[in-house]
Design goal:
globular; 5-stranded mixed sheet; 252 residues; single chain; alpha/beta; Polyphosphate glucokinase
């Protein structure tokens, strides 16, 4: 319905952002952002989302995007929230156990009393930008590397290939994640982004690749010129806009 309002929540490693949007993706209030609290058991994330919701207009449904492998709203694995103090800190076994197979969709729906959709955060980001034509790949550049794939507008089964090795012992996540951008500077880091795109192109043969996330704006102009006409840089606001549009995606 055109007047249906969606609470869209983007859960990242460093912050949790939320907004209430209509079906066209227009926000009905200023988005809210809070730091991601650590350590973060599942119940605390659900409570944090509920608290954010009280500061925003009433919505009819909620979409949550979060890092990791999410299947039918159930967390198979999440990389940051199982750690003591955030990305790349020590993994806490009790948190890893608490998050494994946690039904996030059911917990959010029960806590907020709303129909809920819980997806990988790159999938939500993609829902805000895909054209629903051909094979479309989405990567998000931030704390690490988020990925999603769409075929004809349908979300393909999620693959955590960001954890696959790309160079020596480095994974894609480590190779172009935020710590390396800070260490290398935008120029050298942008060359790595180009290297990753060039390496992935013959693997996926996408019709369109979308690059989003907070660090997409750090890609240098010279690197952007080398990415190719089949690559589009999209605004980070897609992470919230996609929360509203995800409900209209064809069933997978």
């Amino acid at each position: 319905m055109a007047d249906t309002l969606t609470l869209a929540v983007d859960c990242g490693g460093g912050g949790i952002k939320a907004a209430v949007l209509d079906a066209s993706g227009t926000a009905h209030a200023t988005p809210v952002r809070v730091p991601t609290p650590y350590p973060l058991p599942p119940e605390l994330l659900v409570d944090t989302i509920a608290k954010i919701a009280t500061d925003l207009p009433e919505a009819a449904r909620v979409t949550v995007g979060m890092p990791g492998m999410i299947r039918s709203g159930v967390v198979v694995h999440t990389p940051h929230y199982i750690t003591r103090s955030g990305p790349r800190s020590r993994v806490v076994p009790a948190l890893a156990e608490a998050w494994h197979n946690f039904d996030m969709r059911a917990a959010v729906a029960r806590r907020l009393g709303l129909p809920a959709l819980v997806l990988n955060d790159a999938e939500v980001h993609g829902a805000g930008v895909v054209a629903a034509s051909g094979l479309e790949l989405v990567i998000t550049l931030g704390t690490g590397l988020g990925t999603a794939m769409f075929h004809g507008g349908r979300i393909a089964p999620h693959l955590e290939w960001s954890h696959a090795p790309v160079r020596r012992s480095l994974t894609y996540d480590q190779y172009i994640g935020e710590p390396e951008r800070r260490r290398l500077g935008d120029g050298l880091w942008s060359r790595r982004v180009v290297t990753v795109v060039d390496g992935l192109r013959p693997v996926f043969h996408w019709d369109r690749l979308y690059i989003g996330g907070g660090n997409s704006r750090c890609i240098t102009p010279s690197a952007l010129a080398r990415l190719g006409d089949d690559v589009v840089i999209v605004p980070n606001s897609a992470a919230l806009v996609g929360g509203a549009r995800a409900w209209d995606l064809p069933p997978s």
